[in-house]
Write a structure and sequence with these properties.
Keywords: Endonuclease, Hydrolase, Nuclease
Organism: Luteibacter flocculans
InterPro entries: HNH (IPR002711), HNH_nuc (IPR003615)
Number of strands: 2
Protein name: HNH endonuclease
Pfam family, one: HNH
Bound molecules: zinc ion
C-alpha cells in the first residue's frame, strides 16, 4: 500500500510552527484589559499556583500556563497567579523554564 506509507511520512514530518522564543515580541495584553484580567483571575484564587502562597494584588504577576511563545492561548483559562515575592519568585522561575533555561 504505497499510499499509506506516504501519509505516514507526512504525519511524522508535521512541522512545529513556533518561532524561537523572543520575550519582547510576545503579543500580550496591556493596560486596562490586563489589569482587569489580573483582578478577575486573582479574585478567583488569590494563591500562587506554584507555591500556594496567599498573595496581595502587588505580589503576583499573571502567568500563561502554556507560555505564548510555546503556543499557549492568550485567554483567562490559560492564566494563573504566580508570586513575584522573593525568595520563591515563582513567576520569574517559570518564565526561565518556559524559555528553556534552568535556574
Ligand atoms: Zn509562588
Amino acid at each position: 500500500m504505497p499510499r499509506l506509507r506516504t501519509l505516514g511520512n507526512r504525519v511524522a514530518m508535521a512541522p512545529s510552527r513556533q518561532p524561537a522564543p523572543q520575550r519582547s515580541s510576545d503579543r500580550r495584553m496591556t493596560g486596562r484589559a490586563l489589569q482587569e484580567r489580573r483582578l478577575r483571575i486573582w479574585s478567583r484564587d488569590p494563591h500562587c499556583a506554584a507555591c500556594g502562597r496567599l498573595v496581595a494584588m502587588h505580589e503576583f504577576e499573571l502567568d500563561h500556563i502554556v507560555a505564548l511563545t510555546n503556543g499557549g492561548a492568550d485567554m483567562d483559562e490559560n492564566c494563573q497567579v504566580l508570586c513575584i515575592v522573593e525568595p520563591d519568585a515563582c513567576h520569574r522561575r517559570k518564565t526561565q523554564a518556559d524559555l528553556g533555561r534552568s535556574t
